[in-house]
Amino acid sequence: MDQEFGYEPTLVKVSAASLFALDPEVVQSLRSAAELAGADPAASRRYLLTILFGPEMKAFAYAGGHSTTAAETWRNQRGDCLSLSVLSIALARMLNLQAQLQEVRVPASFDRRGRIDFLNAHVNVLLRADGPLHIASRGQPTRDVLIDFEPRIGSRQRGTPLSDAAVLARFLNNVASQQLALDNDRLAYAHFKAAIVAEPSYSASYSNLAQLYLRAGQVRAAEALLRRALSLNYANDLALDSLHRLLLSQDRAAEAEVYEQRRMARREQDPYYWLGLGLEHLSQAQYSAAVAALERAQSLTTGFDEVHRNLAIAYWYNGQLHKARDQLVVLEALGAHDADTKQLSRKLKPVASTHHPP
């Protein structure tokens, strides 16, 4: 629908190369550092983490709602998870480090911008060193390190590796979505189209473009996009929800019921749904409900430390201290040694009562 939305290729300014490019003075500085580090990857890794997190872990700030290129993020000293991860990859490459940007599943998290609700996906960076996986820390230079600027919502699970084209598609999709929220349909269309061209298998670009089509009254084309999104990713819940609503709005109840059943079946077997529900119950001090939801998540997962950690918290608040301590045993077996787990361990540590002679 190029004519409908006044499309011109020049409306899209970012390519895969420019997304990861750094300003010349930054490149020169990093090359000098790389030469000083020589062939020692551990020194380069420590240097990278110092750049990103600073001496007090406060170098680059997280700021949601606006994706930027590596060069822009460096100049701004802040960015969303995609922007900061892109910068991390760009810096790692300059230091000749093995870094992989990956997409990880997290519990559903929404924010509202204007008239649009956004479901937040999450990415982070894996620095490889052929060892156990640890959250980024300048004190662990010889192990695989997970660089995550929002670790409280992230996951220690290894995610889906993303190629540069796949990263570009997600960046362009983000820009398009931001323009959609600003009612700039022309720029939104151009960037959604560019995202699809960059990575034709990325389902979210199609389902998001469908929202633009619906707003423009292009209902039949929007339905085709939603069906295409679902053919690429059966688990695209937003496409599933949107298609279900679209069919209901056209009194196609029998067709809509098929997708309603799919929605319910996915939810029942989705550990991230139950984890998200458990976290919501915890935030509302509904501890029995939180325990039930998180126990359901536990039954559907293996090795998810975020499930066990939050279940321990729910048990603790619900007065089930023995079960809370059992979860700490599981966390210990999983090798979870982050600050939250250590703090929880201190709170749940049994206190012995003794009598001293006078």
List keywords for this structure.
16 helices, Serine Threonine Protein Phosphatase 5, Tetratricopeptide repeat, C8orf32 fold, alpha/beta, disordered C terminus, five-stranded mixed β-sheet, 358 residues, single chain, 9 strands
CATH topology of the domain at 9-170: C8orf32 fold
Number of strands: 9
- Per DSSP, the total helix count is 16
Radius of gyration: 23 Å
Structural class by secondary-structure content: alpha/beta
Distance between the termini: 89 Å
**Sheet with the most strands: spatial strand order:** 7-8-6-3-9
Strand content bin: 5-15%
Shape: flat
Average of the residue pLDDT scores: 86
CATH class of the domain at 9-170: Alpha Beta
What is the correct CATH architecture of the domain at 9-170? Roll
How are the SSEs ordered, and which strands pair?
Blueprint: H1 16-20, H2 24-37, H3 41-53, E1 61-62, H4 70-76, E2 78-79, H5 81-94, E3 99-104, E4 110-113, E5 116-119, E6 122-127, E7 133-135, E8 144-147, E9 160-161, H6 164-181, H7 185-198, H8 203-215, H9 219-232, H10 237-249, H11 253-268, H12 271-283, H13 287-299, H14 305-317, H15 321-334, H16 339-348
Parallel strand pairs: 1-2, 7-8
Antiparallel strand pairs: 3-6, 3-9, 4-5, 6-8
Helix pairs in contact: 4-5, 6-7, 6-8, 7-8, 8-9, 9-10, 10-11, 12-13, 12-14, 13-14, 14-15, 14-16, 15-16
